[in-house]
Amino acid sequence: MYRNIFDSHAHYDDERFEEDRHELLESLFANGVRGIVNAASSMESCKTSLALAQRYPQVYCAVGVHPDAAPHFTEEDCVVLAKLAKQPKVVAIGEIGLDYYYDDASPRDVQRAVFERQLQLAAELDLPVIIHDREAHQDTMELLHKYRPRGVLHCYSGSAQMAKEVVGLGMYLGFTGVLTFKNAKKAVEAAQSIPLDRLLIETDCPYMAPEPNRGRRCDSGMLVYTGSKLAELKGIDPQQLFDITCQNACDLFQIAL
Ligand SMILES: [Zn+2]
Asked: What is the pTM of this model?
C-alpha cells in the first residue's frame, strides 16, 4: 500500500458521490490518501466544499467560480468569497480560469473579467489559485504574466514549452488520469519537461478516471495509476512520487500535515 497520496483537485461534493460519500472517503483515508483539496466551481459548491472540509480533517477546499458559471458572478459574490476564504481549511481560490471549449453559454469577455476579478481577490487575500485552462492557453498565460499568482494549472493540457513558462512563473502543474491514456503524448511530454518540485497529482474526480478505469467514476484511490505513470516517466519509484507531490501540495497550499 502506498502512503502520502495527496489529491490536489477533487469534487467530492458532486452528486455522483451522494450515495456512498462518507464510506468512500473513510476508506480512502484508511488506504493511503493523506489529503484532498476539494475545488469549488460555483457559489453553491463553495459552501458544499467548505462543509466537507469542515467535516474531514484530511479535506481542504478552494473557493471560487469556474468560467462556466461566470455569467452569474456578481460583486456581492466576491464579498462572499472573501469572507469564505478566511475560514480555516480554505487553502486557495479556485477553480477559476478560462474555458473556450464551452464558450456558448459563457462569453469569453465575461469569463476573462470574472477570472481577473478572482485573481485580484487571491492577491488581496494572499492565497494561491487553482486555474482551469481549457483551450484558452494564450489568454491564460497573458493573465498569469500580468498577475503573477502563486498557484497551479490544474489538469494541465498545454505544451511542454508552455509548461516551462508556467514553471518560470513559479507555479505548479497538476496532472490527472489523462496521463495514462493512450493518446496522452502531449501531457506526457509536458510532465517530462518540468522539475519534480513543480508537480502535483489530482483526480478531478468524479471525472478523468485513469486507465484501466477510464470512463468509470473516479476517486482518489485511482491516483495510484496516475502516480505510477508519472513515477515511471520521471524514473523514480511510485512511493517517492507520492511523497514529493504530497510535500509540493503542502508547500503550495501551506498545509501542515
Ligand atoms: Zn475540477
From this structure: 0.97
Question: What separation in Å is there between the alpha carbon of 94 and the centre of ligand 1?
Answer: 9
> Domain total for the chain?
1
Domain of 238 in residue numbering reads as: 5-253
Q: Residue count of the chain, please give it.
A: 257
Distance of CA 249 to the CA centre of its chain: 10
Q: Tell me the pLDDT tens digit for each residue of 72-123.
A: 999 999 999 999 999 999 999 999 999 999 778 899 999 999 999 999 999 9
65: domain CATH number is 3.20.20.140
Q: Scanning the structure block, which residue is given the C-alpha cell 480555516?
A: 88
Classify residue 16 as exposed, middle or buried by CB count within 10 Å of its CB (0-12, 13-18, 19+). Answer: middle
Q: Which residues surround ligand 1, an ion (CB under 5 A)?
A: 204
Q: How far apart are CA 207 and CA 257, in angstroms?
A: 27
Q: How many A from CA of 209 to the centre of ligand 1?
A: 13
Decide: 231 and 240 in contact? Cβ < 8 Å: yes
Q: How far is the CA of 76 from the centre of ligand 1 (A)?
A: 23
Q: How many CB atoms lie within 10 A of CB 51?
A: 14
* Residue 208 alpha carbon to ligand 1 centre in Å: 10
